[in-house]
Amino acid sequence: MKKSSTLLLIFLLSSIVSFGQDAATAIDTYLKEKYPANEPGVIALVIKDGKTILRKGYGMADLEHSKSQTPEMVSRIGSVTKQFTSTAILKLMEEGKLKLDDPITKFLPDYPTQGKTVTVWNLLNHTSGIKSYTSIESNMTTENKAKNLTHAQLLGTFQNMPFDFNPGDQWLYNNSGYYLLGMIIEKVSGISWGEYLTKNFFKPLKMNSTVTDDTKLKSGEAIGYGKNGDKYVVADFVHPSIPFAAGSIASTVDDLWKWNNAIFNYKVISQASLDKAWTPTKLNDGSLQSYGFGWSISRIGIQKAISHGGCIDGYLTFALYIPESKVFVAMLSNNGNNGPTEYAFHAAQIASGQSMMKPTAIAMDANAMKEYVGVYSINAAQDRVIRLDGDHLTSQRTGSSVLSIYPYAKDKFYFDGSSSLLFFIRDDAGKIVSMELVGTDWVNSMAKKTDKAIPDTRVEIEMDPNEFDKFNGEYELVPGFILTVRREGDKLMTQATGQQALQVFPESKTKFFLKAVDAQIEFSSSEDGMVTGLTLYQGGRTMPAKKLK
User: pLDDT tens digit string along 115-130?
Assistant: First the structure.
């Protein structure tokens, strides 16, 4: 089998200084463009070799009172919380109070594992197969997210649901796992999860602005925002008891640097324990995932980065560290519609001297491009479909948007607007048999070419915008989770509770599709022609919704 090199050698390393700018100026200019001064913004901290390159707020922390973001501002960090929880587990392991291969029923004897053995290791790296409670739509309504729930009440929403898969068979991001880890920490230590983190991490490291319950926060916190149509609105309140050990921490960029500095100098737990946390997860079939224990293993240029993002209503966060070049980047955004992940990677590329140069496309005729067309299987649930669209190819992963790809060498393509690459792999006879995605994950994603028929592309029909008016209304997918449909000029827009508005396009008089994601909506009517409901098709699921008004 001939396999293409995964090194990003096509991306030449270039110094930002050669463009007449230093790193600070380059990053500052970049973030000013991404976060306008009059919109919810971001707080950014970039450090290289222990020296601050950039520490600055962009945009607004509070729109109502015209309060700007400042570097000292506190923000919810969402799932960046997970590295604190995983470190607590590893610290307890070092103290001999638990083992990673312990079954969780050793600490939570009443948890119904349905005849399966789920270990602490499975919880740490998202391989348990337990249903993630944040994937259950009824849990994520505005009303339910605001409730102060006990452990028993929260567990009751997911613990008796069927497993998604057998432990260790697959990797699927899972907030239930980290909720259970928080409960294990409490059981083993004899104190609450929040008390444990405060006593062992926050106070010793003088992380004075970091809390596990921001309802008791004394200093200023940026207000989280989402969008309702074109307007920013205050995001739903999520009570800290809901994310708990999976994502309830609020912090500052300065405190996250204190934490990062202590972690990477092995002042919190040992290097041996952290090496476990930063090792890609191996599944039962031997395949690897770019995730360890509470951290992702990423790629910045050709260097390894340890990273994690966070998402909680109104807040999007990303923090990373490149050990080789000693670059730390933390970005805390209160704009739920403008996440900083891509921006953090870009800033890290600049700070580490690995600014990416876009490959140059080469000419390729349609007949040559047809050879790549097909359905490539990523796993049992996901495919990547390569189609010919006019003069170029497109790539679409199941449930994701369509992206254009362009060749820069034989069997090598780059994504438009992204640093990711696709390498097509041939067998000894020269036939394309698989593909390799080289992106920001440390472990490249492989997909085998199949004989599956390419799904039909959806064709937009012409439709009088006045006909959209009859679809206006609110449709209840589950109690408290509403899909609002409204006409805006010549467009039909949809917006789910707590999410951004997305345009839908007609493929028939009653069926519409989204271009932003792989989803469709079909409206139903009574005999007199009145619209009474809709059905949402997404990710293999069929979800009917009745019209409320």
Answer: 999 999 999 999 999 9
